[in-house]
Design a protein that fits this description.
This protein is α+β, with helices and mostly antiparallel strands.
Length: 611
């Protein structure tokens, strides 16, 4: 055992780095997980070569590799590179549609497709369907199991309390062929891996599983919140998947604290929660507690919400949320509500595949880098700085990326995605052993995002064109426009700035009335993709779209400002999304009317099956 302790200490020190404090002695199960990380990251190229060979051998008889690529059973890198092209979702969509329609032949995967995971990315306005296979759950579960052993190196004692994590399932559909189509986290929460998980002191949630699995967003949130309040002194970390989700939970507390306090005082759950399984699960936790009810009333009635997380849950050590990429916009608000608690981004994953871990989870959000685990899939990287537009001959292996360069992520998965362009742009920031570490830079082509929605420039342009047709008969047109993802309110919402031109002597304001502009907001929402509309209608995670009409000449002022800061007058283009505070201030100071969508856009869970 002395040798084992020495190995564990050495492994922990390697993961912590020289500046981190020494942790308490670790359990053998933790040490085993940390050794696994060290093993996987020490000879990345050998692991990757094995993974690619396994994937190609498993999928050797698939239609895609045989007919499309002519691989003829080869499992070596050289043949793979020579014969398999890079692919986008649109390239694979005909194959995916056949699987969705019930074709059970080995089209993309040699193993049966067990379900489809619906991506937050869209194609032709609809969610992308990502085929997955049964044993992919094992790989996801393995990556989850590595998070807390790493965290325990930095924040010891996390097994001595509970996690208040706001976790939710979303709506799912069935494809014409009878396979489930649902988001990746909904798939995981409904799996036996999650529902029948053995007790784990590091992942002991305040929320009953029944509350997490409740499809009604209000009932689920209410039950999770009341259980979190009842166990307030046990809570050591507070979180949600995305930063925006945690802010929605705080907003929910702001709106419902009086009823929550009344339920806790009476020891009885509000009739608004009707799900029998949820009521039964909450009844195991909820007991009459007048003192706790008084604490909640005292903390929430004053209207002062700064530091509310640590005031209600005083033992919280950090927030467990994703605050990279589009979620970075929520960092100041989270700091306000948490009193400046650290924010831990622990994992990098997508619907296509789970990728890697943050081995320095307590670092500043601006310094988050993820170590890609080479056992998860086969990774390749397309350099962003070559200017060629992307050619498969330029792809670089995981072991051969260069420090400081930016790449687009390309993956080959066990489930049958081959050289698939994920659309994430990553920058190499360093190495852990031989494994590169990457900073998430951005999603390619994404203009606006509040939560899981992703709206690109072409889609925004189409929405503007569709909406502006409503006032064409009034003799008005949109001269210029730009946008921002407004996150100072909860939930956040899209803000579109329009400069209008009216024909004749009319002013733009006189030409287009408020009711028409309100309808334009809704018309834009109707034109946006199904992920956006689901977030508005079913999830409540995005607020009504807002159009702010600015006075004539505003966009000329915008150009003048950009030129004053060094932009070329010959190359200047109006930015279709703005984030720079002085530009937003300029636009807002020129607003002559503000209009909101008066209703919810149309959305149903049904997956569109036509072209």
């Amino acid at each position: 055992m002395a040798v084992m302790a020495e190995v564990s200490a050495t492994t922990g020190a390697a993961l912590r780095g020289p500046a981190s404090p020494a942790p308490a002695p670790m359990k053998e199960s933790e040490a085993e997980k940390l050794r696994f990380i060290e093993e996987m990251t020490s000879d990345v190229d050998a692991v990757q070569e094995r993974v690619l060979s396994e994937i190609l051998a498993r999928n050797a008889e698939t239609e895609y590799l045989v007919t499309k690529c002519g691989l003829a059973g080869a499992t070596d890198r050289a043949t793979f590179r020579a014969k398999v092209p890079m692919a986008t979702y649109e390239d694979l969509q005909p194959y995916i549609r056949r699987i969705a329609d019930g074709d059970r032949s080995p089209i993309l995967s040699g193993h049966p497709v067990s379900e489809f995971l619906t991506s937050s990315g869209t194609s032709a306005g609809e969610r992308k369907l990502m085929p997955t296979i049964e044993d992919e759950l094992n790989r996801r579960t393995l990556l989850y199991s590595l998070q807390m052993p790493v965290m325990n190196l930095y924040v010891p004692g996390m097994d001595k309390g509970k996690a208040l994590h706001f976790l939710f399932v979303k709506s799912e559909t069935q494809t014409p062929g009878g396979l489930a189509a649902r988001p990746v986290l909904t798939s995981y929460y409904k799996s036996s891996h999650f529902k029948n998980r053995p007790f784990d002191a590091y992942n002991n949630y305040t929320s009953p599983t029944a509350a997490i699995l409740c499809a009604d967003a209000f009932q689920s949130m209410y039950a999770q919140m009341v259980c979190g309040l009842c166990q307030r002194h046990d809570v050591l970390r507070v979180g949600a998947v995305f930063a925006s989700g945690l802010l929605r939970a705080i907003r929910f507390l702001q709106l419902n604290w009086e009823q929550l306090a009344a339920d806790i005082e009476a020891g009885a759950l509000t009739p608004r929660v009707t799900d029998p399984s949820v009521r039964e699960a909450v009844a195991e936790i909820l007991r009459p507690d007048a003192d706790l009810a008084e604490v909640i009333r005292a903390e929430c009635s004053s209207g002062e919400w700064a530091g509310i997380i640590t005031r209600i849950w005083p033992n919280t050590k950090y927030l467990d949320v994703i605050v990279t990429g589009a979620m970075a916009q929520y960092i100041p608000t989270l700091k306000h509500y948490s009193g400046g608690l650290p924010m831990a981004c622990t994992m990098y994953a997508s619907s296509e595949c789970y990728f890697g871990l943050n081995l320095r989870p307590m670092c500043d959000p601006s310094e988050v880098s993820y170590t890609l685990m080479p056992n998860m899939c086969y990774f390749e990287f397309l350099p962003m700085d070559t200017g060629s537009g992307g050619d498969a001959s330029e792809l670089v292996d995981l072991a051969r990326v260069e420090l400081g360069r930016e790449y687009e992520l390309v993956i080959t998965t066990y489930a049958g995605l081959n050289r698939y362009r994920v659309g994430d742009v990553l920058q190499v920031t360093g190495f852990h052993n031989a494994a590169p570490q990457f900073r998430f830079v951005r999603r390619k082509n994404v203009l606006l995002s509040i939560e899981s929605d992703k709206t690109d420039e072409a889609e925004l342009q189409r929405a503007v064109e569709r909406a502006s047709a409503l006032f064409r008969a009034h003799g008005a047109t949109v001269v210029e426009y730009t946008s921002q993802a407004y996150t100072k309110s909860i939930p956040g919402h899209y803000v579109i700035y329009w400069e209008l031109l009216a024909s004749g002597a009319k002013s733009p304001g006189a030409a287009v009335d408020r009711e028409t502009l309100d309808r334009c907001c809704l018309e834009m929402e109707e034109a946006l993709n199904s992920v956006y509309r689901q977030s508005r209608v079913a999830d409540g995670s995005i607020g009504p779209l807002e159009i702010r009409v600015v006075r004539p000449g505003t966009f000329e002022e915008l150009m003048d400002y950009a030129i004053s800061r060094g932009a070329s007058i010959n190359q200047y283009k109006v930015p279709r999304c703005v984030t720079f505070p002085p530009i937003i201030e300029l636009l807002d100071s020129r607003v002559v009317s503000s209009n909101f969508s008066p209703a919810l856009p149309h959305w149903t869970p049904a997956q569109r099956n036509d072209d």
